[in-house]
Write a structure and sequence with these properties.
With 280 residues, the protein is an alpha/beta fold. The protein has a single domain, classed as TIM Barrel (Alpha-Beta Barrel), CATH 3.20.20. Helix content is 39%, strand content 14%. The strands form 3 sheets. Strands 3, 4, 5, 9, 10 and 11 form a 6-stranded parallel sheet that branches. It has a 3-stranded mixed sheet with strand order 1-2-6, with no helix packed on it. Helix 4 runs parallel beside helix 10 and helix 9 runs parallel beside helix 10. The N terminus is likely disordered.
Length: 280
Amino acid sequence: MKREDFTKVMGVLVVLLILGGAAGAFWLAKGRAVEPVAQEQEQEPGVESAAYTLAKGDYSNLTYDNISIDRPVYDRYTLKQRLEKGLPTMLPALPHYTAEKVAYLTFDDGPDAVNTPAILDVLKARGVHATFYVLGDMVEKNPEVLKRIFAEGHAIGNHSYDHDYDRLFGMRPFIIRAPGGTVGMFSADFYEHLNLLGYVEHDWNVLTEDATPEHPSAAKQIYYIDRRTAGHLKDNMALILMHCNGGKEETVRALPGIIDNLRAKGYRFGVVTPITPQPW
């Protein structure tokens, strides 16, 4: 992980923890200002849709049976709003989905203005939904591409520093991914804090090597995916790391072949949600 990326990640967590601690102290001192009956009567924000699952304030609709691997899961409240309203932040315990072979195509470091739209075109033509872990500065540069990702039913996750997603598409992602991944990079406290704040982090167990100095060709990327999905994977899951930023033209070229190869092996495609198994 680059030093600047690490600094951004830790900056996000520090800000979230400060907000959480301050708000938590406030509510402990003051007590709940809203009576339970009044809170139930209050109309909750957010636009309901069959295209995604939108968490209720009490998380009561976040059940294993109500979450589909075909639909993203978002929060109708920002973390700050949850703390201010005295709503729970930590997600309920959920079993992981392992009933069938699922491939999760994930793309980091976007959205850019060229390769991300090209990837979206391939996914649309193949009828596949994927997960995009986006960078805050790239979102600021390409907000319309982020809106397209959301509108076409793909899942959106946070990949580094925080961003006002509520302003762009009206809801907060639950899923995040640390730049460079977490293995060997963070202590157990990292996961504990994420859990308390209602975030779920996923690394990967299959990758195309498209971010390595090798800069593999499309043919090599297809080969790498084919080789790494040749045997049984933990929990019937291939959580595949790719990138959609500048310089990833070979990834765009490889994507149709990767999708076809996985389908031939009996994989179906899903988006990352709180019921997605951990890859390690």
